[in-house]
Design goal:
Blueprint lengths: L1 H15 L8 H19 L2 H16 L8 H19 L2 H16 L8 H19 L2 H16 L8 H19 L2 H16 L8 H19 L2 H16 L8 H19 L2 H16 L8 H19 L2 H16 L8 H19 L2 H16 L8 H19 L2 H16 L8 H25 L4 H15 L8 H19 L2 H16 L8 H19 L2 H16 L8 H19 L2 H16 L5 H17 L5 H16 L5 H9 L7 H11 L3 H11 L2 H9 L4 H6 L1 H18 L20 H26 L13 H4 L8 E6 L4 E6 L6 E4 L4 H17 L3 H27 L6 E6 L15 E3 L2 E3 L1 H4 L1 E4 L3 H8 L15 E5 L8 H9 L5 E5 L5 H8 L4 E5 L2 E2 L9 E3 L5 E3 H6 L7 E5 L18 H7 L4 E5 L7 H13 L12 H13 L6 H5 L1 E5 L1
Parallel strand pairs: 1-4, 4-7, 8-9, 8-10, 10-14, 14-15
Antiparallel strand pairs: 1-2, 2-3, 5-6, 11-12, 12-13, 15-16
Helix pairs in contact: 1-2, 2-3, 3-4, 4-5, 4-6, 5-6, 6-7, 7-8, 8-9, 9-10, 10-11, 11-12, 12-13, 13-14, 14-15, 15-16, 16-17, 17-18, 17-36, 18-19, 19-20, 20-21, 20-22, 21-22, 22-23, 23-24, 24-25, 25-26, 26-27, 26-28, 27-28, 28-29, 29-31, 31-32, 35-36, 38-39, 42-46, 46-47
Amino acid sequence: MENLEESIAKFRDALDLCPPGYPERPSSLNNLGNAVRTRFEQTGRMEDLEESIALHRDALELSPPGHPHRSSSLNNLAVAVRTRFGQTGRIEDLEESIALCHDALDLCPHEHADRSTCFDNLANGLLSQFMQAGRMEDLEQSITLLRDALDLRPPGHPNRSASLNSLAVAMSTLFEQTGQMEDLEESIVLHRDALDLRPPGHPLRSTSFNNLAGAVLTRFDQTGRMEDLEEAIVLHRDALELHPPGHPHRSGSLSNLAAAVQTRFEQAGRMEDLEESIALHRDALELRPPGHPDRSSSLNNLAGAVLTRFEQTGRMEDLEESIVLHRDALELHPPGHPDRSSSLNNLAGAVWTRFKQTDRMEDLKEAIVLLRDALELRPPGHPDRSASLSNLGEAMQTCFEQAGRIEDLEEAIVLHRDALELRPPGHPDRSSSLNNLAVALRTRFKQTGQKILQTGQMEDLEESIVLHHDALQLLPPGHPDHSEFLSNLGEAMQTCFEQIVRIEDLEEAIVLHRDALELRPPGHPDRSSSLNNLAVAVRTRFKQTGQMEDLEESIVLHRDALRLLPPGHPDRSEFLSNLGRAMRTRFAKTGRMDDLEESLHYYEEGADHVFSNTLMRLSVAVRWAALARSQRHVSTVKAYRLALSLLESWLVKSPTVQMQHKILSGKNGYPTLASDAASYAIEIGDVAQAVEMLEQGRALIWSQLRGFRTPIEQLREVNKGLADRFLTTSRELESLATSSESKPTTSIAQDSATGVSQKLVDEMYSRKRRLASELEAIVAEIRATSGFEDFLRARRFSVLQEAAVEGPVIIITHSDYRSDALIVLHDRPPVNIQLDSDFNDHGPSLVKDLKTALQTTEPDKCDAGIESVLESLWNRVVSRVVDKLGIEKQTRIWWCPTSLLSALPFHAAGPIRVENDRNQYLSDDYISSYTPTLTALINARKPKPGIRRPDIGRPRLLVVALPDELLLQVENEVRAIRKKRDFVKCLVGEQATREAVIDKFRDHDWVHFACHGQLNREEPFLHAFKLADKDRLTLLDIIQSNLPNAEFAFLSACHSAGQTVGGAREEVLHLSAAMQFCGFRSVIGTMWAMADDDGPFIARGFYKRMFAEDSSELRFKRSARALRETIQSLQKMPGVTVERWVNLIHIGA
């Protein structure tokens, strides 16, 4: 640097000696401009680059058209502004540079001494333009110009080596676009020729070493020839020797050598190579202090190397350092910088890796946001667009694997197809795109494979196998990706075997996995994966052939694979599970108890491994519970408890209740987990724990939302600030959870199923994780406060018993293991009644029979079907419960059926006897109500702090009615309610808009709906009341309401307490449950379609009974008895079918 500073000083002195008007002044300006630009290249000080540009502009002004040195000034200025483009990304600079080069070339006819220089400069400008816009004509014109320049510099020309070098770089770029190996081979030959012209002592010999090394390293990436990699390392070491400490290009040589030895590590797995690479990158970074133009490159390179070390050792400090370094690099690439998209991609990769390690969904979502931003910076035509499409496709597939949203997988497939289209035959990355698309299609097949198999359609799997074969054929032996592609094809063939059970497919899979393992010798970073894959395949063959040597080999391979994954590795849970399955298989074969204990140990360790993703841990915990249960092992309850906790943790990662419902409805929703866990607790005689498990694992969505509305008055008295923080964060989370997914805010990557833009979904996930982390910290602080140790913890049975303070609660359980009726009593232990073993099958049959009866158009057949269901319920369940109740008749009881049994009318079971020529049912002896959960019933009875008790006197009743051609009796129903009551507010017909109803909700204690109810088979949060102007009040709208004065709701609408039969059986998602959640303590709803003629009769009789006498009793608590008596009157009416009087039920207090 001293020499450069001395040169700049002398050039300044020379310029001072050339005042304005002096004929040598343009030359002095150019000399000083070039010198300060050289200093910029060493220090990165932008003021030097700006001064250089200013000096060259001054020189150009002094070289008007016709001046003999004008072309030189044009060239110098062009180089300077193109250098500034490289720093700022301002496209105007690049365009100006190209225009200046064109002007310079025009001034240099064929014999001009500077014509070759003009060719070079214009070619470099066009090459930069190609890198921005991806227009092949720019690259092709650049190569043509460079060939012309080389022709003008025959052997012996002092600048021939420079032309050879420039053309070689352009040919490498062409190869990266077309994949034509002859282009790469020509590049290498040109670099060798340039090196020959730069013998020892030549100032640019080190540059040729570096460039030739880069080209042969690229050839290694294509062919896997280790001699190319070794030559590249030797060349980089030679270049470094020519750049001793203090040399301005030493940092570049350090960086290049580091990259080459890191590549060798990736092939051979020698940690010393990786450690050397990291040390070299650190040395390079030290030579590029803040402000250096290449600092961002060093930050990025070092980040990549320490990330690779993390992947080998699992040291979190390496991963965190990598993320910090990538963030620092991104800050040096602000919007508009030409390298910003690369930095976005690199940072995305690092945070994506952290997601795999910690399961923090905000990391995955940040990675996706970064990748989308990078893709936007690479529009159609950009040379790196295919890479961005591919990266985003992989991220979306990972997102699918976490949340189970099929839309994410579909987007991944589209992205991979788009990337493949940009990589035609011959493209160097085509094999990678073929492989990625094949993996995504195989994943989709696994999601829909059973359905596809039943119809004989295997297109996804078949296409996946073809793509894997195509990808493998593009890789010559020795290619670094060969083992990965072999492994992927092996997995595809194994999937094919699992579908059609052709043993030759399995044999091919085993051969492919063995071949992949041979290419991953000890020390190879992916050896553990190959060991695991081969182990799974040979264990599968054991299941087919029973050959013990296969099982023993599988166990050895699984152990070897696990040893290569240290604690903390994100894949450790999966590998532990696989070894556990192998040991379980051997236990089943030999009966050796130590195999059982070892299997359970591996399952437990895998389920407890907090560094693996939650969904994998959940699947391991469920497997653990099933095996432990089958052997009545002491760890069974622990396994079930952990599984229930993991299911809740996995669920709440999704930001909205709609997304959560999709998870619970999917194949990984584990719909019977709570019932299975409870059934085991019952088996071992712990009925109280069974009740706790049901409460913990059912109605998870309602439980989450209810937690956001936890009363905090007592906490406020102790710590007002903490209470306010909890309230604020909870409200934000509830607002996010209940936000609608129906209205898109942007058109970018719009979700075809929900209408939400993918960017918005990404933002929602990120916000959810941030708020959830805040709430978790606040709750921990609350629990550390004396008297609040159990704040928001799963409730103990002693607390849940409070649900039975006014009468017993009967929980009806159903699982594949057993079915039971659990009677929860207020002051005694719970009572268990085991139902007949065939009720496990009979229960679902009753639900099906009831549905069939309701769908018939013949009243007699309908009644006969319903009566058959009621009789079965009495004989198989309810009669046995009544025998054990031990309470007086005409008192209240509550039903809490679980799973699909919640669709059955237990309140009307019978007939139990005949009196006065009339059948008597359970409803004649007891006043039945329902509750979704025990907690919901407890909350319905709690006094609302600071809220008056409005219904002791006269409640404020809101009537929402919408008569139409199918609801002709609605107006009579409204008149029956309003008669002689001046506290009724009516919204009828056109008045009953969604906005009006929501507005009036808050001002009324009671509400009565008389309108159509609508079920949405696919999306229960869109169950709705039909309102004016074809509008609807949806279940989600109701949830969003928080009604502190609410007491009672009568939902005289079809299906208002009905739910669709789907995967999320335990969530109890119907309109009546939503009304109860938002504040109504007692709710009357309908299990199916309601007869229009019954509305006026029921309303008249019900409200007459509700206001028949004054009492200190809260009026809403009369609603269950009033409904029972009204229905008894309806039963006596001539022509009233069973379907009509069974329909209405009471829910809540």
